[in-house]
Task: inverse folding
């Protein structure tokens, strides 16, 4: 067991967990943030995507020891009042169906827009190719990302 | 009111704020109090005369209206993406004369009152939700409205016909006097339920048919929606199960001593499905698997492979049972001007729902609680009762949101795991499947082998059609002796024995093969493979006759106006026969399933080096009768298309040495963003009774794409997934 300090959604958590434990299971089982989903366990589906120092990472293959003292944001920490432009775009494009993959999709999209405020279709393909949606909401996701980009450009 | 209660990092107060009023969720034991849905409904259904609760009007099992004007509505179906919560809520809101936002949906407990009238079961499947509940839920709403109107009339001592209801208020026309529904609940609660219920005519609808946003979107974008995987109760243990990789295999010997020593492991238990590690959390349980030494008795399926199963189907196919016969195939086929023969094959397919299978159960002395993302509350309750030995009434099913269903979540294997483990551990246990468990221990869409023959006359008209099917039967698995009980097995022949085309001589046969692979319902069931086979073979016959595929179909459809209309509109919208970008090709398919008519036209190109098929655009025209929520219909067409497209391009479960060769999304790939086509949905206006929506988008896409490939290459695609290299 290792005494480990995690910065999650702006709060500090000191935890005793095995250093090889994936961040996903610390977030879900230890801390109880269930918005981040388990989908494949092998970085293949993107349902577990969170931000570490602003980058989209797959928490299911990220050992907890690699993120000590780094800023982790989960879907719960992205926006306290649903006001984040990506969330708003997702709502207005009516993206989710079953919804299970959408936390991961949104975290990937939010990271993309931070790094690339005006992504092309190819940029969206590249950034989102790691996130699977079995309900087939990709067309709406693409529209929502573009809408959020427009919104972000206005507010900047 | 029930709230999703979770020991999450989100406080209850924050949770209330972010879920912004929508109450959809879990009823935890002891948290619901006397107002829990299950208590209320149990009370209501057992009440004889006196009304049990003041300040609450309970006109039927679906609705309870409180003195604070809140209207809680029991959603009898499972929400797996198809947006039943909105569509069903629209039905009651319409007849209640309230705004949609005034209705608070809540997932219903397991109870006979919530059986779908169409299937007679509390199971969500077969695209039955709207078809089954369209009238009953309108009646539920209209009953409440009539009783509230009567309550107001009695209060004012006026004739009920002089009152009307609008936006949750009863108004007396002459005097303008008003009473809110909430003010009428005590009076209404004492009235007897009227015998005659008058439903609105479609011309009076102000909600049904309007485009409504989903009621669960906010929860699903901010991470607060609770799925089975997210359930948490005090003292919860987590289990993972090591299963024999060979279907039907058993444990021969096991040494779990090392696994038990791992910190956080509570026990290692043998249950029906394998060896379960019960631990404090998922990761510990999973890690403990590596420490278990197990020897399996692989049983009779140890040598099973895709090749041996194929051979079994080839051996069986000529001895199938005739399921449809028209005219005389035997006599007319040799007389045809031209004939064509083909073999079509489809593989086993997994469902691969985004949410891996899971279930939480807590069996106690006098009750069993099951929290689960299930398509069948009824089956879950039965499973709980059977394993725990409790009565069905003592089994409480708490339905969560489903992270996909597609037919997989009507099964009970994952429920059984949790119930058995909770009994053993005497604690609440959540059993979680890995993605590998999910891919390798599914109930697969059956693999099939098909022999087709067709004959055309000298005018190129299709006169004779013969289709022999061989494959495993879902029906026989779920209903033992189903083959004897049913003269036809729809799960195997639907989409093949009901072609819309007027062909005078037809013979369809089905040979059941018992391969040893568990098979199950997969979005659109038999239609999904049979539509591919028949609609592709139709294109082959059209080519033989030298006819255009759309014109060839139109000619065979005669006066069946609903088929003709969807096909015609699809051809127009796709500019069928018009100019396409260089090296782009179109393919068409037309399928009726679950009472809905769908035509799709896919536009594709073939990547020069990889020979990978790229689908650029899909035009989808649907006639699903009366539309409740056009937004939901559009979303379901998109969803059904992508689901079918994943299967057509890549879906393949292969068997070797009795085990599934695929493991995860790396070797069981599904469609991703870069290959997503543009989808354009057109809905035909109709006054016909509602048809299904959740599955009907799936069957036409594989043949539409395969027919486009046929147009591109001149070579028919007779096997899925589509492979050109």
Result:
């Amino acid at each position: 067991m290792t005494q480990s300090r995690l910065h999650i959604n702006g709060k500090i958590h000191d935890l005793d967990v095995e250093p090889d434990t994936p961040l996903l299971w610390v977030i879900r089982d230890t801390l109880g943030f269930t918005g981040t989903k388990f989908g494949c366990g092998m970085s293949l589906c993107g349902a577990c995507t969170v931000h570490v120092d602003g980058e989209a990472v797959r928490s299911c293959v990220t050992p907890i020891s690699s993120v000590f003292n780094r800023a982790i944001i989960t879907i719960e920490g992205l926006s306290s009042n649903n006001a984040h432009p990506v969330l708003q775009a997702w709502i207005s494009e009516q993206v989710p169906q079953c919804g299970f993959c959408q936390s991961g999709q949104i975290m990937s999209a939010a990271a993309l827009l931070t790094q690339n405020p005006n992504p092309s279709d190819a940029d969206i393909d590249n950034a989102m190719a790691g996130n699977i949606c079995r309900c087939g909401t990709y067309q709406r996701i693409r529209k929502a990302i573009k809408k959020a980009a427009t919104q972000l450009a206005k507010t900047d | 009111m029930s709230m999703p209660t979770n020991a999450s990092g989100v406080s209850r107060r924050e949770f209330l704020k972010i879920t912004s009023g929508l109450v959809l969720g879990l009823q935890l034991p002891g948290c619901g109090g006397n107002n829990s849905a299950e208590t209320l409904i149990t009370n209501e259904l057992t009440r004889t005369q006196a009304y049990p609760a003041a300040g609450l009007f309970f006109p039927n099992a679906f609705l309870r209206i409180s003195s604070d004007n809140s209207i809680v509505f029991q959603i009898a179906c499972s929400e797996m993406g198809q947006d039943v919560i909105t569509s069903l809520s629209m039905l009651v809101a319409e007849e209640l004369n309230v705004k949609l936002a005034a209705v608070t949906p809540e997932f219903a407990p397991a109870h006979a009152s919530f059986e779908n009238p169409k299937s007679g079961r509390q199971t969500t499947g077969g695209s039955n939700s709207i078809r089954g509940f369209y009238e009953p839920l309108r009646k539920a709403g209209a009953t409440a409205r009539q009783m509230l109107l009567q309550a107001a009339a009695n209060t004012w001592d006026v004739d009920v016909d002089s009152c009307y209801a609008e936006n949750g208020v009863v108004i007396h026309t002459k005097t303008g006097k008003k009473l809110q529904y909430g003010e009428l609940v005590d009076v209404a609660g004492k009235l007897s339920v009227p015998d005659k219920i008058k439903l609105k005519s479609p011309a009076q609808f102000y909600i049904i048919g309007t485009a409504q946003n989903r009621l669960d979107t906010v929860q699903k974008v901010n991470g607060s929606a609770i799925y089975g995987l997210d359930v948490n109760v005090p003292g919860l243990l987590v289990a993972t199960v090591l299963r024999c990789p060979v279907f039907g295999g058993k444990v021969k010997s096991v040494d779990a001593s090392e696994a038990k020593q791992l910190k956080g492991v509570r026990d290692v238990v043998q249950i029906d499905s394998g060896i379960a590690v019960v631990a404090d959390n998922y990761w510990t349980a999973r890690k403990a698997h590596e420490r278990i030494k197990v020897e399996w008795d692989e049983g009779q399926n140890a040598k099973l492979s895709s090749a041996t199963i194929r051979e079994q189907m080839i051996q069986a196919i000529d001895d199938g049972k005739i399921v449809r016969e028209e005219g005389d195939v035997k006599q007319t086929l040799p007389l045809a001007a031209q004939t064509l023969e083909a073999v079509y094959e489809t593989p086993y397919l997994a469902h691969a729902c985004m949410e891996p299978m899971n279930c939480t159960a807590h069996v106690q002395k006098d009750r069993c609680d099951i929290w689960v993302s299930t398509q069948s509350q009824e089956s879950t309750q039965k499973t709980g009762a059977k394993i725990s030995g409790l009565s069905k009434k003592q089994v409480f099913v708490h339905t969560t949101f489903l992270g996909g269903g597609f037919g997989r979540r009507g099964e009970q294997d994952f429920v059984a795991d949790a119930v058995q483990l909770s009994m053993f551990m005497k604690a609440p246990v959540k059993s979680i499947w890995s993605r590998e468990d999910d891919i390798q221990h599914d109930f697969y869409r059956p693999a099939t082998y098909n022999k087709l023959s067709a004959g055309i006359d000298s005018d190129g008209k299709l006169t004779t059609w013969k289709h022999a099917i061989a494959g495993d039967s879902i029906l026989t698995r779920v209903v033992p002796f189903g083959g004897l009980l049913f003269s036809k097995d729809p799960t195997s022949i639907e989409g093949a024995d009901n072609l819309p085309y007027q062909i005078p001589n037809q013979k369809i046969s089905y040979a059941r093969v018992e391969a040893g692979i568990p098979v199950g319902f997969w979005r659109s069931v038999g239609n999904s493979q049979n539509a591919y086979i028949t609609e592709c073979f139709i294109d082959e016959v059209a080519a033989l006759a030298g006819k255009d595929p759309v014109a060839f179909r139109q000619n065979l459809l005669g006066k069946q106006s609903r088929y003709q209309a969807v096909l015609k509109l699809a051809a127009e919208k796709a500019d069928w026969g018009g100019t396409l970008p260089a090296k782009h090709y179109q393919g068409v398919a037309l399928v009726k399933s679950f009472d809905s008519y769908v035509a799709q036209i896919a536009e594709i190109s073939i990547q020069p080096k990889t020979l990978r098929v790229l689908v650029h655009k899909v035009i989808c025209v649907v006639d699903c009768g009366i539309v409740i929520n056009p937004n939901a219909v559009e979303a379901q067409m998109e969803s059904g298309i992508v689901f079918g497209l994943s299967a057509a391009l890549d879906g393949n479960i292969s068997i070797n040495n009795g085990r599934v060769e695929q493991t995860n999304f790396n070797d069981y790939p599904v469609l991703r963003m870069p290959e997503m086509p543009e989808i354009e949905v057109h809905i035909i206006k109709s006054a016909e009774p509602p048809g299904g929506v959740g599955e009907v988008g799936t069957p036409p896409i594989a043949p539409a794409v395969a027919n486009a490939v046929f147009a591109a290459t001149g070579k028919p695609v007779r096997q899925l997934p589509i492979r050109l290299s």
The CA atoms of residues 590 and 599 of chain B lie 4 Å apart. The first helix of chain B runs from residue 12 to 18. Chain B has three domains: 12-221, 228-299+357-432, 306-349+444-713.
